[in-house]
Here is the input.
Amino acid sequence: RRRALVVVAAGSGTRLGLGMPKAAVPVTDRTVLEHALDAVSGVLQLDLVVLVLPREPHAKQQLAATSAVVADRCGVEVLTIPGGEARTESVSSGVRAVQQHAQRKSWSGPVQVLVHDAARALTPTEVFHRVLEALDAGAQCVVPALPVTDTIKRVDASAQVAQTLPRKQLRAVQTPQGFTLKLLERAFSHIDKLPEEEAADLTDEAMMVENLGEKVAVVEGHPHALKITTSLDLLTVRALIAETEG
Ligand code: C5P
Here is the structure.
């Protein structure tokens, strides 16, 4: 079997409000993407890494230079491609790049694809390995997840609580999410048939697999795999780095 990793790093970073794409934001003296790629270089037996980068020229150039360094460090082929308007489009482009590479290189046998958010910059390598182990054990789709600590309620359009979900059953899902390439291809061809507003509501790729009625396995995530979305997340990540380095 072959293994490809798609790292989506094309988000605008609007919610961080720093006026630059999120992957280019400095966490320390290094960017979100550079931190994210640290874990990647420890992942075993990858055949290909696809980095999906912002279209904004300055960030693109800066981040493409980063990727060359990763390629050197982990000895894996790294392709960089431009992202799309929505996350799903960025992932879809990444998966297409994997398919094209597999054809060019005449890969035979099963292909496993990991889809990872660059914004989860401190995801430990062990989480990648848990997902890969579950794929090796026969799962077709795997997500890392953690129990939630807040009580989660569904709220209706008039700001009234419609339902309280039982917390014990809930998990907060992270990345990398793992798939067989075959299943991911089926999932994307399913999305192409969805109405645009439904497709826009897909916040991860496992959701597409659920829509197909296929099983999604869950493995343990990690608190350090939090997604940098707001300035509070950035503070947390900086504190975690200071703690491990200090
Ligand atoms: O926006 P959100 O926080 O859900 O983004 C999760 C990941 O998807 C981030 O790593 C971001 O860079 C990526 N993304 C992307 N292309 C987009 C939107 C988000 O690659 N158009």
